Amino acid sequence: MPELPEVETVRRGLEPAMAGRRLTAVTLNRPDLRFPLPERFAERLTGRRIESVDRRAKYLLLRTDGPEVAIMHLGMSGSFRIHAAEDAHDGETPGVFAMARSKDAAHDHVVFDLEGGGRVVYNDPRRFGFMTLADAATLHEHPHLAGLGIEPTGNALSGALLARAFAGRAAPLKAALLDQSVVAGLGNIYVCEALWRAGLSPLRAAGTIARAGGGATVRAERLATAIRDVIAEAIVAGGSSLRDYMQADGSLGYFQHRFAVYDREGEPCPKPGCRGIVTRVVQSGRSSFFCPVCQK
Asked: What is the pTM of this model?
C-alpha cells in the first residue's frame, strides 16, 4: 500500500493539474470503491472550483470553494491519470514507464473533467481505495482524520515528542512508531529504514528511548532525525514504487533502489564497518527488516 511519500508525490502531481480549475463534470462508472460512494457525490462536486489538493497522513484532500472536502485514499492499487486535453482518449500520460500500469477502462472508476479541457481519471483494479465527502468546517473531526498524530515532515517531530509518547511503553519500538495517533502516515517501509539509520532495533521496548521522567534520550533524538530525513528523501525521490504504486504522471518512484534494509533479508548490512546481515522478523503480521549487529 502506498506510504506517505508516495501519497505526497501523487499530491504534487495533481496540484498543478487541478488547483484553480472548476470541475465541469464528475463521472462515476460504478457506485462504490472499497465503500459505497457518498450519495450525490458527482452532483455535490460538479461546478465547484478546486482551491487546493492537500494531504493528511496517507489521505488526499480535494478542497473546493464549496462546503465539503473530498477525502481520497489510494488503497492497494489506486492511481490517477492526468490528461492534458479532454480528447486525450488514449490514456497516455507523461513519465517514463518501467512497469505496466493499469489503463483498462474497466478500472477507470471516477473521472474528473476540468474547465478548459483536460481530465483526471481514478483507476483502481482492486478497488481498495475510497472517496468520501466531509464538512470542511469540521474536517479534523472526521472519523478518518480524527486522532491522527503529528506529520513526520517537519521539525515539530522531535525527540522530545517521541519520548513523551513512548515513555513507559513496553510495546516494541516498531509497533509504537506505526501508531498513527503518535506520528501520522508512517508505514512499515520507512519505519524499517528510519530505525536502521538511528541504530535502533525494532524489537526494543518503546519506553527505552525516554528518560524516567519522559525526557528525550540521545536515542530519541537520533530516531526523530532519522524519520524526518528518510521521509524527506523519499518524497524527493518520488517514493518507493513497490508493486502497483505509480506517481500521478504515470512514472515510477526510485527510493526503493536506496533501501538499506527493507526487503533485503540475507544481504550484508550497508553501514560502513558493520559485518551484520540483514534479518527479517514478523511483528504483528508485518515483516521487519533490520541488522541485529548495529541496531540495538
From this structure: 0.88
